[in-house]
């Protein structure tokens, strides 16, 4: 449940449009619901400003299904990350309105449009096409949290002119998520060009000395462009969560 839905419910009770008993029934799943082998956190949207998201790796299709049903029955949309095609197919048989992105490995079920909460645009920038799965995960997550999102693809430092051609877009963004593998130089370059917060995402893209993303991670942590925030390797979801908090409008 998000703040607006809760306010609507409470105001309906106060005005008499909704009985106390019916209002209580709507709130029975707060703060969480036991669906068997998971406790669905319906209170997270109120507490953190973004609803619970399902991490698909390590869960069975049946487990994800029960969690999804809990979220949807409580009036939330549903986002699952790191979901393989087989699990996605099983879920889409039950939820025909689900949409699956095989590149970003995300599955979304939108029952009501996400409320616009952002102060401005979240720009997701990725260095190369190989970084797109992580960038797409970040973009989908940020959109589901109510942010306006734009994407800028294949503008890594191996061809710096490609990035500089979009300087206006970079400088107009409220928050930038910079996704890169190899040596991870892209966030440092962007951080030296803009005043907006930059969230760096190292990816596990690269040859042997890239060490599965460790080289990019260390490069980003040691950036000479002050103020860059760095999340874990391949963690597009975490970058979107950080961007959402930075970009979020204060709630009345």
Automatic annotation (TrEMBL):
GO terms for biological process: 'de novo' IMP biosynthetic process. Transmembrane segments: none annotated. Residues 120-252 form the PurE domain. SMART domains: AIRC. Gene3D superfamilies: 3.40.50.1970. One of its GO terms (molecular function) is hydrolase activity. NCBIfam families: LarB. PANTHER family: PHOSPHORIBOSYLAMINOIMIDAZOLE CARBOXYLASE-RELATED, SLL1489 PROTEIN. This is 1-(5-phosphoribosyl)-5-amino-4-imidazole-carboxylate carboxylase.
